[in-house]
Amino acid sequence: MKAFADVFHQAPDVVASAPGRVNLLGEHTDYQGGFVLPTAIPQQATVALARNGTDEHRVYAADLDEWAAFPVGENAQAPFARYVAGALALGGASGGLNVHVTSDVPMGAGLSSSAALEVAVLRALRRLGDLKADDEHIALVAQRAEHEFVGVQCGIMDQMASSVADTHTLLLLDTRSLERQLRPLPAGAEVLVLDSGVPRTLAGSGYNERRAQVEEAARLLGVPELRDITEVEALTGLPSPLLERARHVVTENARVLAALEEGVDAARFGTLMNASHASLRDDYAVSHPRLDELVSRLQAHPAVYGARLTGAGFGGAVVALVQAGQATAIAAEVLAGYGPEGRQVVP
């Protein structure tokens, strides 16, 4: 893999990193003002920058061995570079930059490799002195980059998790107010993440369609967002599939709040995760047969409390809450019967 000096023949001015994330509960609720419970993962995107004295940004993705170049303030043609272009433009990059990107966050796995890249670029701009922003503002700018330069109308969860979460606790985030708390994992449990080996891309999936459906459901119900609906009975009268899409959002918000109640142990938390996967599969229709198979294998394991798809769906990764100290052994047993495309990501 080529280093910064190998491709640009200079040393970087700054280097910054940001982590991917895995979401335990609260899927497809963040763009309806809901509640989410992600945590950061150890894998990170790392961005090195140096001023190049031109009016053009030059980006090299070391893992892909791909180049892109585009004028300052404009978008890139290459899809991989649009995340960088958006962050640079909206982050106020003053003049052309040489940009070197590496990442060990799996791409297409629902672990927010794009948010990690956007946040890493913005952190690098902050270190360079071009951007004055706290971590919350960085997340909001990264979300705008996704909307305006990539074309994915994502919620705020991924960027907030990448910008403010850590790998030791759960981030309880109210995506309407951006109020947040750090919460401990249930006692005696740890997080296991497995990649199904089925890649997906948000812009080419049904993600934007799902968002449009729940926005239409909220409009028909006369509320700003489905966050404002707390009873499933209030959804009566919505046409299909808007009814099913809205039911997922309402019940998913309820599951996040239930997981925070006093006395909730790992077993109860796992039950909520299992119910979340069923809702994502049946009501929101964002699962995949291979995801369902992997989740079923995990749920059948005696040392697993609960499992579900994580991220937008349509492929990608699954997350499980498992007995502390057992994650690696569980992963080996589950993957042995799944197929060579599956792999352990966390821990």
TrEMBL record:
It holds the Pfam family GHMP_kinases_C. Residues 90-162 form the GHMP kinase N-terminal domain. It comes from the Bacteria. Its EC number is 2.7.1.6. Keywords: ATP-binding, Carbohydrate metabolism, Cytoplasm, Galactose metabolism, Kinase, Magnesium, Metal-binding, Nucleotide-binding, Transferase. It is an enzyme of class 2 (transferase). Belongs to the GHMP kinase family. GalK subfamily. This is Galactokinase. The lineage of its organism: Bacteria, Thermotogati, Deinococcota, Deinococci, Deinococcales.
